[in-house]
Amino acid sequence: MLYENYKVNVPEGVSGDWKVEKFTVAENDIMAIAYALHGRPVPPGIYTRLMKKGAFDPIMSDTPAEISDHFSFIRNATGKCLLNGLGLGMVLKALLGKPEVTHIDVVEIEQDIINLAWPVYQDGERVTLYHADAFTIQWPKDKYWDCAWHDIWPSLCTDNLPEIAKLKHKYAHRVKYQKAWAEDLLRDYRRRGL
């Protein structure tokens, strides 16, 4: 996989409690070691991350580990797609690069994230943004998608599994294929008692 193809081009900026910033990981620096200790090593390079005021860890980044978390869905996405969570727009960017993806509906609850990332990715013909909550948005009865990606959680935590199940249940009759960020990894963590 060519990770460089999936890196985002969202400029640095601040909106409310949210910030997009570039960061550099050098070989053997403390940041590289910290990522590796979390089981998500990051090779040296320049990356982009989304931070929330008061949070120590990024909400999202375009590091290879995070790109890998999304790649299975990106590879299988076709037709009409639903993205619950805009984040840095990494999945949106990848889907816009696939001609077999005909339309993308994006649901994002945080206006500040929309302010930071949406201007980079809006494509009037193929993308519609909904400023809404993925759990409570009311869709027309005839609204269906070929695939859906649910990525609204700020961290890897097995506590996310009930919410993943709730979202997948909400969209079960509207989507042919759906996945959620890190769902398989979190199920593995739960099986191993982590």
Question: What topology emerges from the helices and strands here?
Answer:
Layout: E1 13-15, E2 18-25, H1 30-37, E3 45-52, E4 60-61, H2 64-76, E5 79-84, H3 90-96, E6 101-108, H4 111-121, E7 127-131, E8 145-150, H5 161-171, E9 175-180, H6 183-191
Parallel strand pairs: 5-6, 5-8, 6-7, 8-9
Antiparallel strand pairs: 1-2, 2-3, 3-4
Helix pairs in contact: 2-3
Describe this structure in words.
This protein is of the alpha/beta class and 194 residues long. Helices cover 30% and strands 27% of the residues. The chain is built from 6 helices and 9 strands. It has helices spanning 30-37, 64-76, 90-96, 111-121, 161-171, 183-191, and strands at residues 13-15, 18-25, 45-52, 60-61, 79-84, 101-108, 127-131, 145-150, 175-180. The chain has a 5-stranded parallel sheet. A 4-stranded antiparallel sheet has the order 1-2-3-4, with helices on one face. Strand 1 and strand 2 form a beta hairpin. It is globular.
Overall geometry: globular
Largest sheet: 5 strands, parallel
Radius of gyration: 16 Å
Question: What class do helices, strands and sheet pairing give?
Answer: alpha/beta
